[in-house]
Amino acid sequence: MAKKISLSAIRYLLQGILDGTLEIRYREGARPKKSSAKQAGRPKAEKRPKGWRRKPGRKPMSPVARQKALLRAKRNKLRQARQALPTPRQVFEALHGKTDGLKLSALAKIFKAPRTLLKDLLAKLVKAEDLQLVKDVYYLKRRIRTGKGTAAERKSPPIEPQAVLAYLETHPGATLVEMTKELGAESYQKLNKVINVLKKEQKVTVNGKAYTLA
């Protein structure tokens, strides 16, 4: 197909040559070729087919939106961790019968809960005087109901003062924890009441944590 050219352009060209108002310049040498994408170090773009359109996708998030999304994810993770925390009743049952008590690491392992969140829960129970914290060891301070039957049936028999005196006679220097285990006391608090009576009667003396007969 032949290319079209305007007659006015031809007339303008011829008139400029005749009048000397138009100069024709000739550039020596061939025009340098543009460097290809491969020579420039860039991968050559594939030729897009006819009718190609960019697929709709998610726009990149702004810094503010990204920060809000991270904060939202952090809150959701914290909420899930709090929901996985044990109830106070479960903590009481875990410490029930543990005369030596349990440390925070042991409780966190039992409940598979984060130590930081579990520590806050235990601090509330200590403040409510349900637990006792002695040298990073938690002890059960309140009474809980376990098993079936009435309270009188669940209650363990009291420790007689004579049993404490007989044990100290064969085991001088025993500690309160050792006597609680050997005598089968429900808790060291109940056994401590019996020992306090014996101390007032001057039948038992204590040196540090060791108990002996007077």
What can you see in these coordinates?
With 214 residues, the protein is mostly helical. Among the domains are: 74 residues, Arc Repressor Mutant, subunit A (Orthogonal Bundle); 60 residues, Winged helix-like DNA-binding domain superfamily/Winged helix DNA-binding domain (Arc Repressor Mutant, subunit A). 46% of the residues lie in helices and 8% in strands. The strands form 2 sheets. A 3-stranded antiparallel beta sheet has the order 1-3-2. A two-stranded antiparallel sheet has the order 4-5. A hairpin with a 2-residue loop joins strand 4 and strand 5. It is rod-shaped, with a radius of gyration of 45 Å. The N and C termini lie far apart (128 Å).
Taking the sheet with the most strands, its summary is: 3 strands, antiparallel
Order of helices and strands: HHHEHHEEHHHHEE
Report the structural category.
Answer: mainly alpha
Assign the CATH class of the domain at 67-140.
Answer: Mainly Alpha
Strand arrangement in the largest pleated sheet: 1-3-2
| Mean of residue pLDDT values | 78
CATH fold label of the domain at 67-140: Arc Repressor Mutant, subunit A
How many β-strand runs? 5
Layout: helices, strands, pairs:
Elements (H helix, E strand, L loop, with lengths): L6 H13 L43 H21 L4 H8 L6 E2 H8 L3 H13 L3 E4 L2 E4 L10 H4 L6 H10 L5 H8 L4 H13 L3 E4 L2 E4 L1
Antiparallel strand pairs: 1-3, 2-3, 4-5
Short account of what is shown:
This protein has helices at 7-19, 63-83, 88-95, 104-111, 115-127, 151-154, 161-170, 176-183, 188-200; strands spanning 102-103, 131-134, 137-140, 204-207, 210-213. By secondary structure, the protein is mainly alpha-helical. Among the domains are: 67-140, Arc Repressor Mutant, subunit A; 154-213, Arc Repressor Mutant, subunit A.
